[in-house]
Amino acid sequence: MGFELPKEKFGGRIKEVAIGATKDQGGTRSARLMAGGSNGLPFLKFESEMPHLPLVAMDVVDTVRMVPEQLQESMGAAVKDPLEWAKKCEAEWGADLCVLKLQSANPEEEDRPAEELEGLVDKMLKSMALPMVVYGCGFEEKDAKVMEKVSNIAKGERLFLGLAEEKAYKSIAAASMANGHGIVAFSNLDINLAKQMNILLLDFGTKPENIMMDPLMAPLGMGLEYSYSNIERLRLGALSGDPVLQMPMICDCSCAWNVPEALEDNPEHGSAELRGVYWEAMTALSAAVAGADVVIMRHPRSIVMFRETINVLAGGE
Amino acid sequence: MCSQGVSEVPTAMEIYKLLPKTNCGECKFPTCLAFAMQLANQKVALEACPHVSSEAKAALEESGAPPIRLVTFGAGELAAKMGDETQLFRHDKTFYNPTVLGLIADDSDGLDGVKSKLDEAQAMSFERVGQILRVDSVAIRHSSGSPEDFVAAVKAAAEKGLPVTIMCDDPAIASKAVEACADKKPLLYRATASNFDDMVALAKDKSLPLVVSAPGLDELAELADKAKKAGLNDLVLEPGVQTSADMLVNMTAIRRAAVKNKFRPLGFPTIAVLGPTEAEHMKAALGVMKYSSAVLMDTMPREMVYPLLALRQNIFTDPQVPIQVKAGLYSVGEPTDKSPVMFTTNFSLTYFTVRADIEKSKVPAWLLVVDTEGQSVMTAFAAGKLTPESVAKAIEDFQVKEKSSRNEIILPGMVSRMSGKLGELTDMKITVGPRESSGLPKLMKTFSG
Ligand code: B12
Ligand code: SF4
What we know:
The complex is a heterodimer of chains A (317) and B (449).
Chain A: E1 16-19, E2 33-36, E3 55-61, H1 69-75, H2 82-91, E4 97-101, H3 114-127, E5 132-135, H4 140-153, E6 160-164, H5 170-178, E7 182-186, H6 191-204, E8 211-214, H7 224-239, E9 250-252, H8 260-263, H9 272-290, E10 294-297, H10 300-313
Parallel strand pairs in A: 3-4, 3-10, 4-5, 5-6, 6-7, 7-8, 9-10
Antiparallel strand pairs in A: 1-2
Helix pairs in contact in A: 2-3, 3-4, 4-5, 7-9, 9-10
Chain B: H1 12-18, H2 32-40, H3 54-64, E1 70-73, E2 80-83, E3 100-106, H4 110-123, E4 125-128, E5 131-134, E6 137-141, H5 147-160, E7 164-167, H6 171-179, E8 187-191, H7 196-206, E9 210-214, H8 217-229, E10 235-239, H9 244-259, E11 271-274, H10 278-289, E12 294-297, H11 302-315, E13 328-332, E14 341-345, H12 348-361, E15 365-370, H13 377-382, H14 388-397, H15 400-403, E16 408-411, H16 419-426, E17 429-432, H17 440-445
Parallel strand pairs in B: 3-6, 3-12, 6-7, 7-8, 8-9, 9-10, 11-12, 14-15, 16-17
Antiparallel strand pairs in B: 1-2, 4-5, 13-15
Helix pairs in contact in B: 1-2, 4-5, 5-6, 6-7, 9-10, 10-11, 14-16
The structure holds cobalamin and iron/sulfur cluster.
Residues 19-20, 22-27, 29, 32, 35, 49, 51 of chain B line the site of iron/sulfur cluster (SF4).
């Protein structure tokens, strides 16, 4: 019959951004990772190029307050110490990069001073060599101080700093620009807001190759459908040629562990740990299938499941 | 797209050629050509022209048909629906018929083994945000070499009530199995190039839906077209799927061919048969997102099934309208006028989460559900759809003060900011509840006396 695969050709291409800097590049990371670069829908290699597989970032939270108890059990004692945790991500769990979440900066909780957090980032950079993303606590004034210090102490490492929000992006953008870092632009499940956030940053002087977008990943069972469609639309918008949407997307799928159903005791739904692992792996797969260029994950087992799948999806074995 | 000798949706010109060309106007269009154009866009039905010949009718019947045919199997309320999709992306419009999930039992496991698997499939039914999510079907695969065992297994499956897929490439044996349950409208799996004529004859004879299977899409389209010409319309396509990469490419190509190019030979639902490993489970998730109408699986651990069902529920919801419940004053347990009152939003996920947490406390309570157009607490609050005014109005509308004499209401911790204003508006005592409703049982203990 001579059936030919119906191909979609797009005019646009996702920008490639570099995360991390090696010695040659002025940093101390083990690799410079590339995210993005694709000119088609994810994994459809018969019609488009996908030069880089979605990267797997593992998150490291600097306070156990934010880590569900069950995870502390199943991931072991390392999650009580961010330095140990990060080392495990590198040495045992196969992360491509680390996302350090400085939740302890939260002025309503631990309120750890910026100097201490600067020290933590410095130690982490010295104790492991993965490229890094560093997130603040979401309180603007505090994050401004923290990010300035983080930016300075990590000069040359090409971190990505986050999260830049519509109403709070200037200090963090300035911090990232000061030392050649990148920035993560957060928006709330809406293609226009994502675009607006990028425009704000570009107007402020941030270079497009220094921006990744976080369009908010809602986990499975808690709004995943909104994120899935939002990511698809962002990707299609970028491919159809809108340069302001062509930044790679980073999607935080560790949010799966905040879903009560993933972890609650309920023998009808099987054992909680394995269910949580599937919960996170499926959340991440949906992000990747929709168009994520970097996924943030937490559990070593879900990472194995996820990675196996995307490797095969990309044509490997 | 190539179209040699196969049926596609006709163009306006092709339709026009088949019309009487008298421009009589009885179809309410000024000319036959105008009518043909509307018909090609599927805006009118052919019946609107009283003069069309029966040959032309047959030729044009297809133009009204949906791009992907609706195929059902099984009988009664639990019958499984596949296909009838019209979109490539769910943001354009809903995906309608959730991927049918089926558990495969193999007759070589013996009748007891098969039965325990059937029980397992049947037990996998869960309530989630007010909807029943279940494993929708079972499949019996023949590998024992004993036709009697196969027939017995199929019989056992048919008695369960869930739709059944008969998995056997040998038409003679399949036909025996069909005899055991023909009235239950099983799905017949499968016709390949090597058993094609006999399988098609069997499906036709018993009016059963048939899976057509081929390694390449080219051959698959050819076989499907041949089956169609033999008079079978209820087909399900099985593209050769080895890896998840094949699966994504093939399922995407079939969906595009059917929906975008109206390529009729591939305008049918699809099926994927998966193995027992974790990697295959992830493939099931891929199938749910990317266009598999049915997924049959060798194993279904509960740890995997529940998230898979939740994923399916997420992907197949209407993108415009969140799943929601009616606003109103709900009783949890058997509350009296002394029982505590609290409010939440009418987003199903929120309502059912909060309700379950109240139930855990074993303290009866009144739960006021405020209409937020199906948005969660924080979303509605951020969007101005959950305000002190709207809550006060709901208290009024649903006569909270008549049901409860406590004159007190508990609000979700996330919106503690509205407590002052709400107190003013209602003259009620406002108690700020926990941020997560999972903290409710602890709070409710103080009300139990
Ligand atoms: C999915 C989602 C959406 C979906 C809507 C889903 C829906 N139907 O509601 C969409 C994409 C439409 C959306 C839109 C917006 N969203 Co929104 N969204 C989310 C998301 C990812 C999940 C929400 C959810 O489903 N939660 C689950 C339910 C069960 O939670 P819940 O209703 O709060 O219920 C819990 C508690 O409140 C408590 N509880 C509930 N009732 C009661 C009752 C009592 C008595 C007690 C004690 C406790 C209690 O227990 C429940 C279980 O823990 C969250 C982020 C997140 N991960 O939480 C953001 C989030 C809620 N959204 C947010 C925002 C800002 C918006 C927008 C305004 C963005 C914008 N500018 O357009 C819009 C508003 C919509 C509009 N303009 O109409 C913000 C709110 C920020 C804030 N602090 O105000 C959030 C927190 C994201 C963020 N981090 O910025 N959103
Ligand atoms: S009713 Fe039929 S014949 Fe008459 S104008 Fe319409 S299409 Fe032509």
